[in-house]
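RECORD TYPE: protein structure
NAME: acylglycerol lipase
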Amino acid sequence: MAADLDVVNLFIIAGGTLAIPILAFVASVLLWPSALIKVYYWYWRRTLGLQVRYADCGGYRFCYTYRGKPGMRPSILMLHGFSAHKDTWLTVVKYLPKHLHIVCVDMPGHEGTTRTNTEDYSIQGQVRRIHQFVETVRLNRKPFHLVGTAMGGNVAGVYAACYSSEICSMTLICPDGIRHPCETKFDNHLQDLEHSNYTLNIPLIPTTPEEMEDMFRLCSHVRFKIPQQILQGLVDVRQPHNTFYQEVFMEIVGENSRYALQEHVHLITAPLQVIWGKQDQVVDVSGATVIAEVLPGCRVDLLENCGHSVVMERPCRTAKLILENKSRLICNVNLNHHDNKS
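PREDICTED:
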């Protein structure tokens, strides 16, 4: 009987001990969902072996994550899109081999990278800052593979045009900056914004859980079921930065930046791969054809049942396509080297 009581007491003590972290977890979800989101990113960075580092240059600080070390294969630099951050790439990095040297940087003013004046947020301004980062971490000791999505794709394309000797190959994922012949749902929103003199809410800068859900519907063809608490957490995380996001938005839709990639694409000499979601409602998939007409040798991969958020909707497929393209290019280089020796 005493033994039975000891067992009962053990379960009571164990139950009480477990109840505390469980209740704390439930409370954090309900009361501080933004904290849970930060823990989520921390957990996945740790799980995937990504380390957070800072690079300082003349009073300007870049925040980035990296995995692996520079080796025989080209390093990979990944540039995220508007109002996002370096952790955008976690879903893709998950499917990339651990021996590759991967660097994911917060774009100028985003997340942990310094915020300064608006001239840094134009496409050309961001290109200059990213080049500063590349030089600071000495990524350009040998040519590297550059990947960019959305706004980051616009920046990546202009970077490759301006600093062609630093790029061995590149991947653009649904890049901004192209005059696509077909209008999208977002183009219609943009026209309404212009007619209202930008007094209407910007769809890519949500301020409520409902607007956050609308943004996901706009950017993603895949319908993710996201709990209300998580939507609220995402809003809370972004809310302090919304004024900054508005500044950046006004810069990248301005006349000097809106079609920057279009104006520079003919100067790209590195082998180019373009990945695009066929159901993109932000930047129409016809932009891929525009790029291919200027650079006929580029590889184009169009993804079925996929929207603008390719990295989130098709991370495994995206990683596989990047690796396939890199392998193909390395094989071609080796073949050319063999032919030259012969």
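COMMENT: The radius of gyration is 22 Å.
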